[in-house]
Design brief:
alpha/beta, TIM Barrel, two-stranded antiparallel sheet, binds glyceraldehyde-3-phosphate, binds zinc ion, zinc ion binding, fructose-bisphosphate aldolase activity, Fruc_bis_ald_class-2, zinc, Aldolase_TIM
Length: about 290
């Protein structure tokens, strides 16, 4: 069931758990994530970066595939189709394509410009029943060409953006896209607590969910994080399982080269990663 992310995140905030956002790249990713969310009776958010949208030949293709698959798989849990780290133009394209949620990542603009553009997009999204996420501070590292410096968010700037009526707020708290380096100092819970203090009852989003230790995830949820984004970890588990299949020579046995066989171990690995995250985030059984 395709829905906006608002209700699922408000429920998560009230229930002290987090909804997983898992990024999709193709049919296999989408199917694996949808089936696992359904199996676990968990609400889920399918994230689509601008790069992944382009790879899948455009947001219209993505929306058509997700809508059709949601129906053909008989998915009954709430599913939001969400633009991840969207540009201003990308947000309009996804609204037009039929996404149910958007993220406007205006974190690289001066705060006044971020406020101006976010205000406009909040109005447009809400008039059409979509949810909208905004970002303050920046997430470190790189994701699909979006590069962040990783500075912690200013709690007052978070309040200015939250007051515009966004449905969820991504605040940089030392989180990084991709693998965390060995010398990573960890999440800044001081920043998270200060942001929470300023913004009150608004779901917070934790990007860079790959590889954050379980105790930090749980502490972040206890401090108001209601949505956690995971991308790289599914890619790593898919790549690892596929490598093992090929290294074992299974692609050379019988019809092992058939993509439906070749890609199956990777799909199972994505399902296992999504299962682990849904359990860790506490969203199993919350649909
Ligand atoms: O926006 C998506 C993410 O923040 C995912 O980050 O690739 O480090 O899991 P990740
Ligand atoms: Zn992100």
């Amino acid at each position: 069931m395709l829905v906006s992310a608002k209700e699922m995140l408000d429920n998560a905030l009230a229930g002290k758990y987090a909804v997983g956002q898992f990024n999709i790249n193709n049919l296999e990713w989408t199917k694996s994530i949808l089936l696992t969310a359904q199996e676990m009776n968990a609400p889920v958010i399918l994230g689509v970066s601008e790069g992944a949208g382009k790879y899948m030949t455009g947001f219209e293709t993505v929306a058509a595939m997700v809508k059709a698959m949601d129906k053909s798989l008989g998915i009954t849990v709430p599913v939001a189709l969400h633009l991840d780290h969207g540009t201003y133009e990308g947000c309009y394209k996804c609204i037009k394509a039929g996404f149910t949620s958007i993220m406007f990542d205006g974190s690289h603009y001066p705060i006044d410009e971020n406020i101006k553009k976010t205000t406009e997009l909040v109005n447009v999204a809400h008039n059409l029943g979509l949810s909208i996420e905004a970002e303050v501070g920046s997430i470190g590292g790189e994701e699909d060409g979006v590069i962040g410096m990783g500075e912690c968010a200013d709690p007052d700037e978070c309040k200015s953006i939250a007051d515009l009526g966004v449905d969820m707020l991504a605040a940089g708290i030392g989180n990084i896209h991709g693998k965390y380096p060995a010398n990573w100092p960890g999440l800044s819970f001081e920043t998270l607590a200060a942001v929470k203090e300023k913004i009150g009852d608004m779901p917070l989003v934790l990007h860079g969910g790959t590889g954050i230790p379980a105790d930090m995830i749980q502490k972040a949820i206890s401090l108001g994080v209601s949505k956690i984004n995971v991308n790289t970890e599914c890619q790593l588990s898919f790549a690892d399982a596929t490598r093992k299949y090929v290294e074992a020579g299974k692609d050379l046995e019988g019809k092992g080269f058939d993509p439906r066989k070749l890609l199956a171990p990777g799909c199972e690995a994505i399902k296992e990663t999504v299962r682990e995250k849904i359990n860790l985030f506490g969203s199993a059984g919350k649909a």
